[in-house]
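ugh ok so i messed up the first submission bc i forgot one of the chains. this is the corrected input, ALL of the components this time, i swear. 495 residues overall. if the numbers dont match what u have on ur side tell me asap before i send this to the collaborators (the ones from the other lab, u know who)
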Amino acid sequence: MKFTRMLRRMIMLLAASALLLGLPAAATAYASSATSGTGWIRLAHLSPNTPAVDVYLYSFGNSNAEIVLHHVAYGTVSPYEAVSAGDYSVAMRASGASPSSQPVLSTSVTIQAGHAYTVAGMGPESGLRLAVLDDDLSTPSGKSLVRVIEASLKDQSVSVSFGSQVLSSKLAFGTASSYFTVTPGTETVKVTANGGDANSTVTLGAGTVHTLVVLDGANGLEIVNLEDAAGAGDVPAGAAATGFGGTAPHGPSSPVPWLVVIGAGSLLALTGGLRLRRRPQPGI
Amino acid sequence: MPTRRSAAALALAAGLAVVGGGTAGLLLTRHPSAAIHPPAVGLDALPAPTGPIVAPPQSADPRPVAAPVSLTIPVIGVDAKMITLGLAANGTLHVPSTTTVVGWYTGSPRPGAIGSAIIVGHVDSHKGIGVFFRLITLQRGDRVYVRRADGTLVVFRVTSVRTYLKNHFPSESVYGPTPDAELRLITCGGTFDSTTGHYLSNIVVYATEVS
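and heres the new structure output, hopefully the right one now
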């Protein structure tokens, strides 16, 4: 029948248009490359009665030093150096000693990618040791982190506060405290010790990590404020909307309006077709 | 009745015509439009800027540094004014209102100070390319220059270029503290979702100050 043929044709047409609706392939190739594979290390001399030294950093199994710092005196802290992750050894020699001479002290350190370390000569000369400190690189949003290293031989222990917050109580000579989370701001750092007190005004910014080092100064104690790391104070929420799409290949526009048109047309044709199909009634 | 029959025939014909037109429309709009190819003008490599270059900061003596005023990436032809940006009410980064400048987030360290300075720029506008259109083509070792208000230059070298899906954005590695002076150059990339009007990914270039 004519009408059935037409209906069949119409259904085929609708089916064909439905096939064309196939969504653009949604799979996005997303290859996250490995981390750049570097960590950071800095070297420090924090032993009050030890003369200046030369400090060497060797990649494990390599006799050529990667970094050499000459004539490092008490109180010196080097900047961080970025190095490939891996095993290293740190050696200290008397200042000016031959690089091939036996080191006074050495220690091994494993540097992990994305981590930072301080390797410091600590303690009295008679008991000098190389301490490997893990340096924190994360702060709670809007806060700062601070720790204390007691490197004054004048006192066997010190107590340190930042404003009203006590950072460490009776921290022993030659040791480092753990990190404390503090509210950022400018406050007085107060060091209390048997041999005398010391004050210093210190600003700790939001998103920063600091180390306060208590040193023997020419007169009394000295407070050195190291800025270990810094990031965004208020960490932005997630990603950034930095494009409007003007150069992007645009996907096909929505098919819905066209489908509505096709649907309405089909309905109209169907109605017309049904009417035509009815046998004409004899006129009254 | 002939009038009835002809009305029905008309409806049938009109309906079929509408179906035909709708199908044609549907077929014609199923083809995606091609990507815009950038004009060569303005994207040629630029000479490196000149000026007094400052040394990287020391953790034992963190001196305050001057505010950034412009960004130059010679290899991809970027030489753009740097504006300042804050956070929107919902905590996300504001972005520059034009696509020809870059913005430094004032809540992050200044470029050349210890820490990671956050700089964002648009990849494109509604019609054409933006300042960071070629950011994704940067390679390890490429140089990035920031001019500061006191006329000094800070030089960085690219250490890696990453693409992150926005719903898996690693805030800690991008915005978190670093112990040396670094940059994070951020723009959009990946697939463009025309329903939301946003790209699905961010491109992040990591760079470290050259000593």
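quick check: The mean pLDDT of chain B is 87. that seems consistent at least. Helices of chain B lie at 2-28, 171-175.
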